[in-house]
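Hey,
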Amino acid sequence: MKLGIVGLPNVGKSTLFNAITKAGAEAANYPFCTIEPNVGVVTVPDERLKVLHEMYQSKKIVYTTIEFYDIAGLVKGASKGEGLGNKFLGHIREVAAIVHVVRCFEDPNVVHVDGRIDPISDIETINMELILSDMELLDRRIQKTQKNMKGDKNLQSELDILLKVKDTLDRGVSARTLDLNEDELEFVKSLNLLSFKPVIYAANVSEEEAVAETDNEYVTAVRQYAAAEGSDVIVICAKLESEIAELEDEEKAAFLEDLGITESGLDKLIKASYRLLDLISFLTAGEPEVRAWTIKRGTKAPQAAGKIHTDFKRGFIRAETIAYDELVKCGNLAAAKEKGLVRSEGKDYVVKDGDVILFRFNV
């Protein structure tokens, strides 16, 4: 899973990236200090793996991961190349979803590219650049389709969808707000439009406001904007996250407890990412390792097996599966089998979050 962190310059984007990935990307108080996207890999915490590790006495734990791309600060005119904008927009096309960091704090020591704090204006500036970039791509695709229609009248339905999307973009509205049927959805996905990518708005607040866990007027405005387009919002303090990142796990928990904060910004971001992309994890366990595998909700057993190895999918026979909670309640796999709780599932089985699975295959 690849997530792109975007935002205007000096909104706390690189500070947040550094904190959640400990990658040490440069965070400077001037625009365009990030040109090539920094990439950080973050393990997804999963307490279930520690329990299975003890149960199976496994040699190692392998967590699933998320890749975060710290994409340079975009500015007005990016779609026309302002501030190396075309290059930065190209980087966004490579990610599955966007984490849009929005400045929701006052600080005279940190300059704002527009000289004022206005999160909705900031959001609209970036969204408009994504839309303008998409419009260029769409115009070329429409011209190509119209040209090819002379020899293939079946392209009319494709053209209809393209024009439907163009009408939305022409009104300055992101493609992700479109109401599409299943066929239209699959086609629009294939276009890889920037404004169609799902978004999490990360409202970056001051340390005091993060500890208070109450929304300021800026965060309230961001929540209203996000709700109107069906996007998610998390509230974080990039500065506080950078302090948390320096601590060991046990110290981290104590530090958050002392502050009265229920969970770190990284934990919020991971949960929001899974919700946004409709992802779940299934688990495999044995003496060599216990491991989490991330799949889309609704994935069937053979496709889930293919995440481990293509041979597992190709030669799939069955999935021996048990829900994590049931396995833990029994204490071990042998006891679960005695109680008849380990099920043998076929090709049509839809894998559920927390399923502990052993795949049987033959190639």
